[in-house]
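User: Hey, quick favor. My workstation is busy. Could you predict this chain's structure for me?
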Amino acid sequence: MTAAARKLPTVDEVIARLEAGEVIELIGGEIVPREMSRAAHGRAQLKVGELLGGFNRRTGGPRGPGGWWLMTEVEVLYAATNEIFRHDVVGFRRDRLAECPSAFPARDRPDWACEVLSRSTARNDLVKKQRTLHSAGVPHYWLIDPDNETLVVYRNGPDGYVNVLSAQPGEVVRAEPFDAIEIDVSELLGVET
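Assistant: No problem, here it is.
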């Protein structure tokens, strides 16, 4: 069968498969299975949640700056490109969305997305997802690479994402949009220094 004759999966077909318990994404017209995470991936994902926990609440108060809805492993529909991504961690500003997104998949554009790179997802995270997020207007995109022990922070610019921060273990950084706090990159990556 030629590529032109091949039937691409629809968003509705993918949603039905997700509701049936499959762990997949729809990227560039193709269904991409999500593989089980390795230990380093899971640790980094958990650490992001822990370190940013003070943002995952209403604004103000003694427990942190607040102002965000933060979630892990949530499917987000990017309707303009008919893609569904299951971000490792994703955030929505509460000043933009008064209520936590509850649709399945989420249909609101995130204000921040974070992917923890693995061998099976790196190409999509570095290229295809980044292009879609940029075109959808997602303001911030983080890539955490446990294998290469790096954090890269991108800001949406007119011609693509702009790298505003690259960091490695041993550094303490203020990474937008969460630059109200310092993040120890060694702790984020679970690296003993």
